[in-house]
Design brief:
Layout (H helix, E strand, L loop, with lengths): L1 H10 L2 H35 L17 H32 L4 H19 L6 H9 L1 H11 L12 H16 L6 H10 L3 H13 L1 H7 L8 E4 L11 H8 L2 E4 L7 E6 L3 E6 L2 E7 H6 L1 H11 L4 H34 L2 H26 L9 H5 L4 H14 L9 H5 L4 H11 L6 H9 L5 H14 L5 H10 L3 H13 L9
Parallel strand pairs: 1-2, 1-3
Antiparallel strand pairs: 3-4, 4-5
Length: 502
Amino acid sequence: MNALNAIRRAVFPAAELVLGMGIAQFIATAQVYFSNRRLFAQMTAVAAAGFLPVPNPQVLPRLLDLETAFWGGLFFTLSIGSGLALVSAAAAGLWRRFPSGRRLTAIGLAAAIAVMAVLLNRRGFDPWATLYVIAVPPPVFWIATRWGTSSGTARDGPPLGLRLLPLALLALGWFTQYDANLFLDLRDHLLMSNAAGEKVSAFYYRYTLYPAEVFKTFDQRQIKTVAWPAGNTDGRQSAVGRELIRLDYLPVNAAAPADLVLRFDDGDRLTLARGARPVWEGAIGRFLSDPGRAASDISVRTDRFTVFRAAVYYGVLLAFPITLYVVLFALVRVVCGIAFTERRAEAAAAILCLLVGFAALADFHLSREGPPPSDATAAALESDRWQRRVAALKASQARRWDVCAGPGYAAKLGSPYPQERYWLARALAASPNPQASADLIRLMDDPQVNVRTMAVQALAQRRDPRAVQPILNLLKTSQEWYVQLYAYRALRTLQWDQTRLN
């Protein structure tokens, strides 16, 4: 029994966090699966109405795969799931260490759950958000209060100070790197610079759009659907239909599971409803005078996920890194426990985690490059270090310097470093050289997804109408939803809309 308690102390609260995230994964998989099925039905209706769906027919079948829902749901597991599990494990830690305040701790956790449930549903009841809150914390708290120690006293618990000190120091260290480019630099220098990181990056871009579709506002979605009243003028031909299409609210069959339902009332009025609830009502002339304002109003009135999005964001930003640290610390602690006594194993695990964390921080810091001086940009573009060349490309973009006229331009188009090709595409957006558009079209076939999407975005920024057809071809043939997202945005920037398909 003593050996079992020692193992429990060693891994607390990692096992409890994994349990909570496991529960969240079941909920997240179901949430994303049903969201995917609805999107499949809507995009099928879009195609049946003669429009181009996004995702396209090559990707649509994946929306029905349980595997897609599982991996997409992992995004919610590692954000809101890990956050709820952390709160519950922290409450359990207080419960064990302060026996005299156990009732207050339990009441406090229950009150926190109630408040979270109210906040998540304040703009309309959402069963999935509610299920996370009521299904994850109770079992994590219960197991943590039972598994942690034999007697539940502070003496039996793990030395939290020794465990939290490396986390606090690492947080302070990484905070020194925070700036506007941090997340892009993390991708470039920590992920895309090694094979394992590239797999993580590819996984993210393959599956992230499925959970994102769950809580996007209408303004953030590429295509919205409007159930067109049966027997009325075809959506393509009426003035209202043309404006809706221009705003990417595509008219579909009245029987389709659309985002909105359109009704014409008394000949000169229209109503757009979400289910049974009207979200915009008024005269047709009022709608046609400012359809963009109407679309913005509809997006605000139909958005039920403001708090849920915030919870997911802070879960990714704070809860996930802490959870990752706790789980990795537990693994290191178990290994150290084989060679050392319990107290020394704690110290050894803390030191190892600190060293590994600061080694990664040092490598990241040394890999980042600041912009070169203006008179040194050309030399930096020919540097032996890809990091230095990338810094020069960033500076070229900011200073609107023509990289096509720079040294080594042709070699950069075929650079073995996807980071360099990505930033070259961004820099080409500002180039006055006509050759830049042709080279960006070539980069649309790049093997790396980030380079392809940035080439598409740069073409849109150049406002070159000759790019419409190549981008449209990419949208129709791409096997990746993420690429299609950028292609559709680019086409809309270039003044293309769905009425031009037929």
